[in-house]
Structures are given as structure tokens and as C-alpha cells.
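Appendix B. Worked example

We walk through a single record from start to finish. Start with the input: the chain for Pantothenate synthetase, Halomonas casei, length 290.
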Amino acid sequence: MRTLRDIDQLRSILREHRLRGQRIALVPTMGNLHAGHLALIACARKHADIVVASLFVNPMQFGPGEDLDGYPRTFSADQTQLSDAGCDVLFSPTVSALYPNGLDAQTRVHEPVVGEGLCGGSRPGHFDGVSTVVSMLFNLVQPDIACFGEKDYQQLAVIRKMVRDLHMPIDIIGVTIVRADDGLALSSRNGYLSEQERATAPVLYRTLCSLRDALKRGDPIEAALQQGTAVLSDAGFTPDYLELRDLMLGPISADTRHAMLLAAAKLGPARLIDNLRVELPASAINTATK
Ligand code: PAF
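Next comes the structure step. The output line below is what the pipeline stores for this chain.
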């Protein structure tokens, strides 16, 4: 695996692969890799000849008071994991290489629909930061495909929409959430949890599972969501949102059969997010419109 920091070097190496007709996959990351990231690399390996991972803790997607400075940086362990997983190129630029004129002077990409509400509501500007850096990485790598985890479901929806809206010739592949044995979705931010908080954390996923079962049975939606929020609060979380949306993150309607439960909640120092797909019965019609 080659590790590159330099944009010109990255471009010239990838140009050679492209000229040979090889398909290129990109896996964008912020490092501190876990099995969820390795599943993205495995997916990329399946779909392409050359796998490029980027590792860049993107300051533009962190709001004031968020964890940019404390974000775990584990570069050499990440490098070893990527190389062992069969990644061909690791691109890890500096902040000044990607944003030479500083963040304030930087052209930004704004997706105005699916990035509204949910995490976009609680983290203003977050998805502009994600869309901007991802489109920059797409321009630098020019991948045929790019893999993103479904844990960040809204991020995946924003990127799919951005690629469609801007006619970028890239297939976006969503990769299933990787969970610990107790159900907790793997996340770099799980490392912020104390032992006791870590023991509580799977309540988030268990709550989503109970809600899914309740909604499948036809329980009233609003009441079920309120009950789920109460369960999270009682367990020690500070819920940010617990919502049911359609698969494109629009509001559910009488016709919605396939939906997503999406949750974000703070537990101690960590803000955890998770989601679960739900199949709604026809009887959800009345409760969805109430
Ligand atoms: O999901 C992430 O780790 C980041 O949001 C991404 C896609 C690498 C952009 O910085």
C-alpha cells in the first residue's frame, strides 16, 4: 500500500491506473478505523481493481464546541489495518493542502433537502462540510465507485443526492452497519464511553428494535416514538431525535411501507447515532396521518 499526502502524486498515480482501464474505488474516512471501516474496504475490493482510502479529519464538518481537537487520531494503526485489508493507496492530505485559503474562503457544497433536520438540525453546517470535502475527494480521486456506511444514513442520503444533482459519474454503495455482539453500532466515538456508559450504549439499538416490532404490529407511531424516547432518557441518554422517515428521509405518508427509524442521543461525552429499517403494515395509514 502506498501512503500519499501530496495531491499531485495522488493524481499522477491514479492517472496511470485509469489509463490501464482499472476501476477505482474510494473509501473516505476520518481514521480511527474499526471493523465497520474494514467492511467498506472489503466492499470496495469487491467492486474495483484499485482501492483508495482517504484519511482526513475534516475540520469543516465539526461545529463550534464539537470534538475536532479530541477526535481520536491513530494514524499508524490505521495504516496497518488498511494495508492488511488490501487497500492499495492511502491518501492522507494536510488541512492546508485541502483548504489552502482557510475554511472561511472555501467554496462549499450545500445540499438543501435531505440534509435538513435530524443531524443536520442539531449540527448546523455539518453536511455542508461533509459534502464539500467528499466532492473534493471525488474530484481528486475520480473514483468509479465510493463506499459509505449505512450507520450515517443521512450522510449517505446527502451524498447520493449530491452525486445525482451534480451529475457526478460515481456509483455510491451503502454498506450495512457493523455491530458489536451486544448490538451497539461500531463508531469511532464509542471510544469516548466509560465502562458503565459502554454497558448502557446498546439500549439505543434495543430501543430501535422494540420500536420496529411495535410499528410492524401496527402500534400508533407517535405514541411508540414517545415511548422509545422515554426509554432512552430513563436509561441515561439525552435523546436528540428519534424519528420515523421514508427511505429518502422525507416525511412518511399513508403510502409509506418501507421506512427508517433514526436516532441520535448523547451518552456521557459521546453523541451516538443509529438507524433501523422498518416495514410498515397497511394499518399504519391511519396512525401516520394522525
Ligand atoms: O463518515 C465519515 O467518516 C466522514 O463524514 C467522511 C465521509 C469521511 C467525510 O469527512
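Two observations about the output. The first strand starts at residue 2 and ends at 4. The mean pLDDT is 97.
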